[in-house]
Amino acid sequence: WFRDGDPLVKNFDKFKEKYGSDISLITLLSFKDSIFKHDNLKRAYQITEDLWKVPNFVRIDSLTNYSHTTTVDDDITITPFISDPNAQAWSQDYLNQKEKVAREITSIQNYLISADQKSIAIYASFKHVDGHESQTFKDTVAIVRKQIIQKYQADDLKIMLTGPAVVGTTFEEESMKDFLVILPLAFVILFIILSLITRNLI
Q1: Are strands 119-126 and 57-61 parallel, antiparallel or unpaired?
Q2: DSSP string spanning 81-93?
Q3: Residue 77's Cα: distance from chain center in Å?
Q4: Given pLDDT bands bounded at 50, 70 and 90, which one contains residue 15?
Q5: Interval 87-115: pLDDT, tens
Q6: Which of 24, 46, 72, 168 is the most buried (most CB within 10 A)?
Q7: For residues 44 and 30, is the Cβ–Cβ distance under 8 A?
């Protein structure tokens, strides 16, 4: 499609190096109650922070680090939608206000938060790695399963992973499991067929 050294390809590679690849891992958090309960929001905040610590991620988009933009006349104000709980205690009034505002922000509906406000999606963009994408995806998915799912999974919180990286990794894992079952079974069937053939010949 493009000749070697094409400036458009070089610019695209620079873009991916800075902002990550177009492959992402999506972590879905589904709570039994509203996300705007103190303990639920705190866990969502901590999971987002922990995802930042996972190698190979260059960007994390979550409700808890979403930048809320408001305008008054000519003034444009950009503030974190959810404040750092270590810097500001979340009162019940604060949580109620955020719950109300979240319903009014159409850009995050069914993207960062579900309509019933019980589930959120956290999008993690991979660093651009030429030639080693498959192994990078496997390693990263394994880390997220161990450091996020095993750590935070609870009776009132279901954590699911999706996205191209997870689908590809899971498909390969399940294919290998099927292969380990089918291969011995094929040998058994082949042995039975050969036994019947040789017995008939004799």
Answers
A1: antiparallel
A2: SS--TTTS---HH
A3: 29
A4: low
A5: 889 999 999 999 999 999 999 999 999 99
A6: 24
A7: no
